[in-house]
Amino acid sequence: MSACSASPFRNNSRGRLVAARLSVSISLLFAGLMNLSLAQATKATAAPTTCATCHAGAAAHYATAPMRHAMEAQGANPQLVAHPTLTTQIGSYSYSVQTKNGQSTYTVSDGTGSMTLPIRWIFGQHSQTWVFEKDGHLYESLVSYFPRDNTLSITPGDQKVTPKNLTEAMGRELSVWESRSCFNCHATGIVPGEKMTLEKLTPGLDCARCHDGARQHMTDAAHDNFTTLPKSLRRMDAEEVSNFCGQCHRTWDTVVRNHWHGPAFVRFQPYRLGNSKCFIGNDKRISCLACHDPHQQVNHDQSYYDSKCLACHAAPKGAGASAAAIKTCSVATKNCTTCHMPKVELPGGHAQFTDHQIRIARAGDPYPN
Amino acid sequence: MFVAPISTAITKRILLQMRQIQVSVASRLAAVCMPPLLLSALLCSSPVQAHAQESASSFDDLAGRAAAARDQGNIPLAVELYGKAEQLKPDWAEGWFYLGMLQYEGNQFPQAIEAFNHLLQLQPTAVPAMALRGLCEFETSAYGDSLRDLEEAVAHGAANEPRNAQIIRFHLAQLLAHAGRFQDALDQYKFFATQKVDAPDLLLGVGLAGLRVTTFPKDAPATDREVYQAAGEAGYAILADESERGDELFRQLFAHYPTAPNLHLFYGFLLFPHDPTLSIDEFRTETILVPTNETAHAMLAFTLVIAGRYTEAQPEAEHAYTVSPDMELAQLALGRTLAETGDVKRGTELLNQVLQRDPNNLEAHLGLVSIYSRSGRREDAYRERVLCLSLPK
Questions:
Q1: Which domains can be identified in chain B, with CATH numbers?
Q2: Is B376 part of the contact surface with chain A (CB cutoff 8 Å)?
Q3: Chain B partners within 8 Å of A240 (Cβ)
Q4: pLDDT, tens digit (0-9, with 9 covering 90-100), for A54-85
């Protein structure tokens, strides 16, 4: 199986592009027939130009993709609505998250006093951490919600925090840079070199967050100018893709520079993938995009991933193929990830992450750092 | 309240702080150097027993009187008696320590250095003595020796004791800045910031290190003290994790001193550990304000490399390397940018050039990982990755 055909993303993407181009061509054709430009045609229909104007398929899929919902603004959140009262006790502090009428509040009490704040931003689509605003400062909630165990518990990374008062028990104050860093990966609209303005941010990642230049392209396209295309991400090799996705999911370099070790960092997939013996930067079959389409929901079908592994590890066919050059599995040809990409419990995270360090993982083997 | 340690007041403070060291060191050294039973055994078996007993008796007498004089605060007498005792028994480490301490207290710095030299010959790992010698050397303007001693003393835990940490680290920070090791100096100053220690000379020191001035705070010209102090205050706020205040202070500084050299570089260095990409604009502004600032060019190139913006990094890296071909940062930045933008051969050469001098240089190895990975050299890439993961912090 070729690298291209191994990736439905590429197929889908290509398909969508073809469809988009076709759509544009058809629009132009009709516009030409009617002696109207695309811009005039758009204006005529009074529909605002968006990415979906031309990339309807991708936009429709992406509307429900995890990255689109990496952050939500305050308001009705399905998980919080489904669990309108969440409580926990941590040390001498009790916590309560109440949701009613589409609004969620977060309360911390120490027995003698309490503090209640509205949840301003919800980070994460599954496990949730909240960000509050108090006295002009931003705070990360000291407890988060973990749906697997349906529990409130200490936010990962904050286990060593020992609150000395209600404010510290409520959350950890974020520096201007840390908050910028958080919002930069969970929202869209941060402008390099400019102060972050929360009101100008769009929750979650919209098209422009990854497709740099998309807005200019959209503006120009509305005037029938298709020369200012965003940089093509599909031409990037596996190493470049890892570094691109690693801007938020952490690159191999970043983790190594920071000397991060241990299962807490299993969630940084580009780093774990880079540790794999089979990872090589010039082979797109091992790129993040070979298995994941960021415009789509995460695929949980094992067989889907089997085909990705077999793109490299299938037994050679034909007399010309070199069996020696291909490592095949002597145990099975399906459910590859169960042995080669085991699930790892994130310490304090009440969730398991797929370890992207591809290897032969035997029962009882220690987590490879 | 921390006060500038060059003053008399701080000298007294050192003594107060060092008293705890004295007790522990004295008892430790006594235990190591003068095991009483061993000493007795040696004396009993000696062929010159009578003379030895006389000497021992005389030595014990002197040592006792020296200690008494010290306890009574009669420093000149104590110094004299310790000196005599050391003439009788030059391998008496405890005596050298007290002699050095007392001479230091009396501002007899060259003599104190001599005493600590004797002690350190006997006990090369007597860390408190090393720290004290470093402080004495600072007072005699033997800055190179002082830096060596204080740095080694800190590396061996001399600053772990909270009451000694301030005095040692403040001197060390000044010496590091004086030696042009500005980032190392700021690392030392960060200790004070996180402890919320406040003192004008401290802010001045931070400002000098931040603006890359090798002058000691005590020698800072009056005309420039204001900008150093203000820069120190802004830098100190950031080192203390008061990000919003620090950010605001720097903005005010930029407005007030729009052309002050190294100001944007300083801010860039402070932002770098939080998020390297945030420092890019600061380094770039510095290169515009002061086009000859090669550190700013190299940092800009290197930071762009970290951000993966290799095409942008290349001209900056070329510039830095052309002007300062021996600057490691310039070699790393240019090596990586060349490799990532197509000139793999020259890029690899530059990165290997760094590794010849510094085989454990992580950035050079990271560059090689990328080169090997992107060119399909799977085994080499994997080997380099394993090596990177095993490099010391």
A1: 1-179 (1.25.40.10), 293-393 (1.25.40.10)
A2: yes
A3: 374
A4: 999 999 999 999 999 999 998 878 999 999 99
